[in-house]
Amino acid sequence: MNRRTFLVKSGGLLLGSLLGSGIPVSAEVCIPQAAAKPRIALIIDDIGFNLNRARRFLEADIPITFSVLPRLCWSEESALALHAKGHEIMLHQPMEPFSTAVDPGPGAIFVDDRPERIQHVVAENIARLPNVVGVNNHMGSKYTQRPQKMGQALDEVRSRGLFFVDSLTTGHSAAYACARKMGMSAIRRDLFLDNRRDVLSILGQLRRLRQLAVRYGSAIGIGHPRPATAEAIMRFRESPEGRNAAFVYISQLL
């Protein structure tokens, strides 16, 4: 019997005696487990305008969930190309914002739409994108505040077995609560990464995101296909904070 085996068995016998049984306790119980790394899920929204910008994020060599806008020139090809590299694909469903000066883009749904149109548009958007596993909202500061309208949109998402991520484009969003009430797999983002578009600011947001992940076990950040965002993610991954985090797909947090 070598020294390590002797120590493990002796420790088990001692613990068993203390518990009053005299039976050795499994050594696995006595060996402490390493603390799990905080988990970070990154979503890159607004895919579909330019495939080359999306491809820059592949250089980070970490799991990234890409959310693709429907009915754009590069929507389908982007979904196929990014999924072929092993990444997770979501539909970035356009929804009505409060500002009438902002166009949510093709495939959008509006609060004045009839339920039949909402369901048809969402269903067609999902059908047009290959390999979709979930949906999050694009814009929607007006639409996501309406539980009834969210229910009409989410009914199509649920019927296809997809999950939903509330992008929280407004603090008054009812989207997440509505999805949970419907029994869906759903989650909310924690931070937008690139409201300020310089690398140092985005790095600061990534560090904040990791702090949230340390506190709560996981955190979700949403960014956009911009060169500064890709550069910041690659720098963060190589930093001590990034090396001590586990990057995961959004579905792994549900």
From TrEMBL:
SUPFAM superfamilies: Glycoside hydrolase/deacetylase. Transmembrane segments: none annotated. InterPro entries: Divergent_DAC, Glyco_hydro/deAcase_b/a-brl. GO terms for biological process: carbohydrate metabolic process. It comes from the Bacteria. This is Divergent polysaccharide deacetylase family protein. It comes from Desulfosarcina alkanivorans. The lineage of its organism: Bacteria, Pseudomonadati, Thermodesulfobacteriota, Desulfobacteria, Desulfobacterales.
